[in-house]
Amino acid sequence: MNLIKDETMQEVTESNKQPSIFDFENYKDFLSQICFPNGRYQHSKDTLQVWSKKLGYKSPSSLAMVINGTRYPSREMVNALSRILNLPNNEKQYMELQIDLEKCQKKGKDPSYILDRIARVYPHNNHHKISLQEFSAISKWYFLVIKQLIGTPNFKEDISYIFLRLKKKITPSQIHFALETMEELKITGRDHNQKLIVLKKGLLTTNDISSAAIVCHHHGMIQRAVEVLDEESIHERQVSSLTFKMPKSHLPKAKEKLFKFLSEFNKEFATENSEEIFQLNIQLFSHTKPYHDSEVTQ
C-alpha cells in the first residue's frame, strides 16, 4: 500500500512570541503573518509601504507580489528580514531553501539536493536522518508508480516499455534513475532468475520523513490529476469534491477517518495481478479563517 501521510504543521497561537518560519507550510504564509499579524486581508496600503521600505522594495506592490506568490523574494530582502527580526541562522537558511525549492520545481529541475539540505535544517526532522536517495523515492511522484508497475504480471524491465506505459510523462533518464535508486534502497531486488521484483510491498511515510519531500510528492501527484482532467474521458476517471461546514475541532477525527478509509479502500480494490496503476487523491482543507469583529475595517 502506498500511502503518503503528511506531517501535521504546528498551529500558531496568538501570543507576543515572534512566529517561527518552521511553524508555517511556506515562506509566503510566514511573511504574511509577520507583515500583517491581524490578517493578510485586513492590511492597508500604509502597512505595505512601511514593510516595503524596511525590506528594501521601492514600491508596496513589489512586496504584495512576493506575499501573493507572483514574485520571488530577493536575497537582499531575506537578509533585511533576518536582520530586522533577528532570525536564527537555521530559520534564515530554511527560508532561502524554500525559495530555491519553489524555483527549482517551477523550472522542472531535480529538487533532491535542495530537499536534502532542507532535511538538515528542519528541526522537526531529527528523529530519522534519511539519505538523498530516500528523499528522491518519496518526493518524485513516478517512483511509486514505477514500483507498482514492476509488480504487475506482464512487466518488462525495459525503458521503452515503462516510458509508454506511463504515457510518456517522464523521460527515459528519469526511469533509469528511479529503477537504479529503488534497487539501491532495496525497495526492489532480484529473484533467483535475476528478474526484477518488489521487495518492500508497502511504503508508508510518517512524521519521520521531511515535510518538504512529502509536499514535493503531493505537488507531482496533484499536477497529474489536473492533467487527467483534460486528457482522460469521464468514463476513465472520477473527480469529486465536497464543500461543507465543520467545526475545526473535528479535523483530527476527520483526518483519522480518511486515513482509515484509504486503508480499507486499498484492501478492497487493490489487486496484485492487475496490469493498470491508478491514483486516488483525497484533499481535506479549510476554505475559511476565523472571523473576529475587531478585524472589520470601518
Which features does this protein show?
4% strand, 298 residues, mainly alpha, globular, two-stranded antiparallel ribbon, 12 helices, two-stranded parallel ribbon
Structure notes:
The structure is a single chain. The chain has 298 residues and is mainly α. It has a domain at 8-89. 49% of the residues lie in helices and 4% in strands. It contains twelve helices and four strands, in the order βααααααααααβββαα. The longest helix is centred in the C-terminal third of the chain and has 21 residues, at 211-231. Mean pLDDT is 77; it is low at 1-16, 39-43 and 205-210.
Task: Summarize, please.
The protein has 298 residues and is mostly helical. 49% of the residues lie in helices and 4% in strands.
What Rg do the Cα atoms give? 22 Å
Strand order of the largest sheet: 1-4
Measured as a percent range, the helix fraction is 40-55%
Which structural class should the secondary elements be placed in? mainly alpha
How far apart are the first and last residues' alpha carbons, in Å?
54 Å
Shape: globular
Describe the secondary structure blueprint for this structure.
Elements: E1 2-4, H1 27-35, H2 45-54, H3 60-68, H4 75-85, H5 89-106, H6 112-121, H7 132-139, H8 141-150, H9 159-165, H10 172-184, E2 188-190, E3 196-198, E4 203-205, H11 211-231, H12 251-269
Parallel strand pairs: 1-4
Antiparallel strand pairs: 2-3
